[in-house]
Amino acid sequence: MKRDELDVASGSLYERLGRAEGITRLVDKVMAAHLANPVVAPRFQNVKDFDHTKKMACDFFCAGAGGPEQYGGKDMLAAHRGMNISEQEYLAVTDDIMGALQSEKIDPATQKDVLAIIYALKGDIIRQ
Fold first, then answer.
1. CA-to-CA distance for 85 and 43, rounded, in angstroms?
2. How far apart (Å, rounded) are the C-alpha atoms in residues 100 and 98?
């Protein structure tokens, strides 16, 4: 097994995504993609504090990926309750996330792990 393959196989998702610095870059790219995505951009038009939204997303992803950061925000169900997010919007967000992972040259195994998490959260997001 090559050294980089060993790192992917043994490192936490947090490590494989580049720790807080890498996850912050990913969140920045995902949020920029959301704002440029005509399917989901309208959801962000009324966000009053976009920097806070980005920070909460970073904290959520860092903590969820196994990092030491603490997430004090709402869970996925509470955060999306009343939004009535469609399947199309959910898939558009998923595409934005996967595009950010690819642009950061995240390895395919890690991309697959992130995709599995996205799909595990689907029931807490769609049509709530």
1. 9
2. 5
pLDDT for 46: 87
Tokens 């769609």 sit at which residue? Answer: 126
Q: Helices (H) and strands (E) in the chain — how many of each?
A: 8, 0
Q: What is the mean pLDDT of residues 39-67?
A: 94
CA 115 → CA 1, 25, 109, distances in Å? Answer: 25, 18, 10
Q: How many angstroms separate the CA atoms of 25 and 104, rounded?
A: 8
Residue 107 pLDDT greater than 70, yes or no: yes
- What is the CB neighbour count within 10 angstroms for residue 101? 21
Section 36-49 average pLDDT: 94
Q: Which domains does the chain have, with CATH numbers?
A: 14-125 (1.10.490.10)
